[in-house]
Amino acid sequence: MPLTRKDTQRQTRDRLIAAAHTSIIEEGVAAMSIRNICSAAGHSQGAFYSNFASKDDLLVEILQSHIQDEVTLLRDLVAHCSGDDIEATLQVLAARLAKLAGEAQWSLLSIELQLHARRDPAFAERHREGKAACYRMFGELVADLTQRFALRPALPPMQTGIGLYALWMGLAVQGDVEGAMPRDEMLVGFFRAMAGLGSSHEEQAYS
Description:
Helices cover 76% and strands 0% of the residues. The chain is built from 10 helices and no strands. It folds into 2 domains: 1-52, Homeodomain-like (Arc Repressor Mutant, subunit A), CATH 1.10.10.60; 54-204, Tetracycline Repressor, domain 2 (Orthogonal Bundle), CATH 1.10.357. Helix 1 (5-27) crosses helix 2 (34-41), helix 6 packs across helix 7 (121-148) and helix 6 (104-119) crosses helix 8 (157-174). By secondary structure, the chain is mostly helical. GO terms for molecular function: DNA-binding transcription factor activity; transcription cis-regulatory region binding. Residues 10-70 form the HTH tetR-type domain. Residues 33-52 bind DNA.
């Protein structure tokens, strides 16, 4: 079946995003150019500007689409957990976040975007907007968990979501730390503390 115009445009957009992602990892944001992105994706610069207003628009899209994909996956994982087993649900959630935090490509992408935002005031505002959207997605995920398990968190779901996102990003950027508990246990511990669930035996071992 022939591709529709919308399908073709989606493919073009996805190829440009993939090429930009690779360029960021291999060269960094400063060295990334629209010309090189288009060449790697096999499209013209006209195709680029049909999808993105600027390089900064593309960078924000990379951040938001990556987080959106992950939150969608997390929701699917949580949906398939046992109905009233909060511990199993938290373990599944934390295991996925910890796995992603340990991936070098994601940590490099996070660092590059953060550095670019520090150096470029114009992008900094777009970056803040992009992160705000990420906070909302994490906050909505926490709100769903709060409602599903009738939790009484120490902070509102949005604030807990912001804290969870910040911890997750911090774990991705800093890498392994000697003497620290595994990433998944740290993420579970944070959520348990925010949800007023107390400490597990594993967390107490690190106290």
